[in-house]
């Protein structure tokens, strides 16, 4: 049985993950409008991945006998100064999410909730990957900042991202 404190904390994380998906769909729309199809594709996959995070959290609460509570989701920004500014905002957002996952882990440790500690390990590892992949895109864009041709080359690379459904969600989506 999940404690009220842990249930509330994980429900809060559901809201953040839905917001993350919303934010990345906003970025996908922004890139689409700039005809940067690769960046738009990358952001759509990012948005989809966030929804898989939402599902993992929902399943965990339900499996532990808790109650899922969905709250109002904040509206994301719709425009950024440049593609680089959008990617830098993505990096900053992911660093913030990492901090929240760490807080969740602290809550799980304090509550001696071993099942939650075990469950949250996946999110800890995922955040390392998320920060690294966004940072790589930021660094590439910085390298070609002055060149339009370079921007289109990076756009083509961003188009290569593929979506992989986590094994525990096969058949759920
Ligand atoms: Fe679900 Fe991008 O963190």
Summarize this structure as a short list of keywords or feature phrases.
Ferritin, 0% strand, 173 residues, mainly alpha, single chain, 5 helices
Describe the structure.
The chain is mainly alpha-helical. It has a single domain (4-165), classed as Ferritin, core subunit, four-helix bundle (Ferritin), CATH 1.20.1260.10. The protein is 73% helix and 0% strand. The chain is built from five helices and no strands. Helix 2 (37-63) packs parallel to helix 5 and helix 4 runs antiparallel to helix 5 (148-158). The radius of gyration is 17 Å and the shape is elongated. The two termini are 26 Å apart. The model has no long low-confidence stretch (mean pLDDT 96). MU-OXO-diiron is lined by residues 17, 20, 50, 53, 94, 97, 130.
Q: How far is it from the N-terminal to the C-terminal residue, by CA?
A: 26 Å
**Domain module count:** 1
Shape: elongated
Amount of beta strand = under 5%
Task: Report on the biggest sheet.
Answer: none
Bound molecules: MU-OXO-diiron
CATH class: Mainly Alpha
- Based on CA atoms alone, the radius of gyration comes out at 17 Å
- Helix count equals 5
Going by helix content, strand content and strand pairing, the class is mainly alpha
CATH superfamily: Ferritin, core subunit, four-helix bundle
The name of the CATH architecture is: Up-down Bundle
| Average pLDDT level | 96
